[in-house]
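Researcher: Next entry in the queue.
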Amino acid sequence: MQPDHEHDAARGPARDHTHASFALAPAVRAGGVLPGGAYQVHRDFLDFVVDGRPLLHQLSDLDAVSPLASDVPPAIFTDHVRRLLLEAEAPLPGGRYVIYGCPECESLECGAVTAVIERDDDGDVVWRDFAWQTDDAADLELNGYHGIGPFRFRGDQYRTELERLLPNAPARRRVLLIGARVAVLARLAAALRTIGVGADIAEDAVAVPPEELRAYGAVAFGRAVGEERRTAVREAFGRAGAEVAYVDGLAPVVPVLVAQIEQALDRTPPDRRRLTGLTVTGGEATVEVTSTCRVRLVAYRLDRLHRTRTHELCDGLLEPGAHRFPLDARTVRGRSFLVARTMGAVLVAPVTRAARARSPLA
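Model: Structure for this entry, 362 residues:
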């Protein structure tokens, strides 16, 4: 008698119902100058995490990125997500989808990792028959990744992870990023997408259809965006009848940027907020809460080499009222910001030059 996992002529191939977990996580393909003088492009993207381990790490020495890259135009990014959700036809014959592609040109001729993605009768999503592919036909015998997969994901978990990247995210948790520093905006977009905030990058909003503008809950301007462009963007949203929050002068620190945008997207009525105030005056920070809650207060600063330094000022339960925390001058010198977080709320405050000058150890 053949084992259950082998082919049975009467019942067909037996199914392996062992499920793998599916998640997304930010990843980076670092840019730089190669020894011969050629330039390697920096790419921020979302990697596929299978059973807690990035899938790309299982493909040794592979220089590639997933289709979910931060610098991909919004419409194309959405197309990639819908393909992975099996809401659009496979781009390659045999129901094959690109899992990782060339980070420089994204051309199939440069090579790509592909796999068959399908939904079974139980609603699970299966990734199988991984292969290295350079044209329309995949040769599994010659170029298959025989030690990778198949992976069976629970349909609800799989859909939840991918659907939060789509433009129709609930409560308009979507932001339009406008600025000149594309690398910073790309890293910011990747970080926002991992917490369920959709993010698109654009030079302006003039040519964006009104229905798309109304899908945004906030617009974030980079520091280099002039007043003329800001005015044009505001007018475009006004014509579309879209009420959005505007975030100006973004800090060049990704965790602070994320917090600024989370704060702008918060639509909680003021009388229902637990974290109500964060101010910096006279060398100290003041945090105000309306009910007992756990608050984490972190200082971020840029050093002279533009590296981000962090210092935790508080992480514990605070009673209702105002709570003051002294600021060490070494912690907040240079360009510095404070971020206060509690469950479901975040506030950001810059540390001004005057506050630094009056810091206790200044």
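Model: The chain has a mean pLDDT of 83.
Researcher: Noted, moving on.
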